[in-house]
Amino acid sequence: MELRPATLDDREAIRTVARETWHDTYDELEAETIDATVDEWYGDEALETALSEPGTAFLVAEKDGDVVGFTHGVVTGEEGDVLRMSVHPDHQGEGIGTALHERLREDLQDFNMARMRAIDLASNDGGQRFYEEQGFEQTGEGTVEIGDEERREAVYTLEL
After folding, report:
1. Dist CA 104 CA 64 (whole Å)
2. For the chain, give me the number of helices (H) and strands (E)?
3. Can you name the residues that pair with 153 across neighbouring β-strands?
4. Helices 11-25 & 44-52, crossing angle to 10 degrees?
5. Residues 6+ apart with CB under 8 A from 15
6. How far apart are alpha carbons 104 and 134 in whole angstroms?
7. Are the CB atoms for 91 and 68 separated by under 8 Å?
8. Cα of 105 vs its chain's centroid, Å
């Protein structure tokens, strides 16, 4: 497995991983809602912006030449936010998410952050286990609109 900074050429592969992961993870969401959300959140314009923002790290994991996971984080002040973290369902449990998290943390620490936050849908038990295994604690809740509905989110924090 190779971890590297994402490029504009990775956009379609990132969308594919996101779509497959969302369909596998969020069974409470309608398929059309997932597809529309992925198209919006991971569209060309959104990814181009994400890849060019200052204080940002956007990484992909490749296995046998295929993108199998990605993560995206940004630092504002002393706080780093994990904005995206996905590993294709066929490759979960292989340590890819942990490797991506560790590299993202290293890259974001270059921007002098004191803590990391991650936000995920509260219904994602696998995400909760993952963040807790990485040393995060659930510190709050929020909401996000997906498919014209408010969804509960869990906020996880890791003090560095």
Report:
1. 21
2. 5, 7
3. 121, 142
4. 110
5. 38, 39, 42
6. 12
7. yes
8. 13
Question: Could you tell me the pTM of the whole model?
Answer: 0.92
CA distance to 13, 18, 59, 108, per residue, from 64 (Å): 14, 19, 16, 27
- Beta bridge partners, 81, equal 74, 117
Residue 62 tokens, joined: 């490749």
Cα dist. 52→78, 111, 119 in Å? 20, 15, 22
pLDDT in tens, 44-72: 999 999 999 888 999 999 999 999 999 99
Task: Select from 23, 24, 27, 26 the least CA-distant residue to 35.
Answer: 23
d(CA 117, CA 58): 16
Which two three-digit tokens encode residue 156?
């996880």
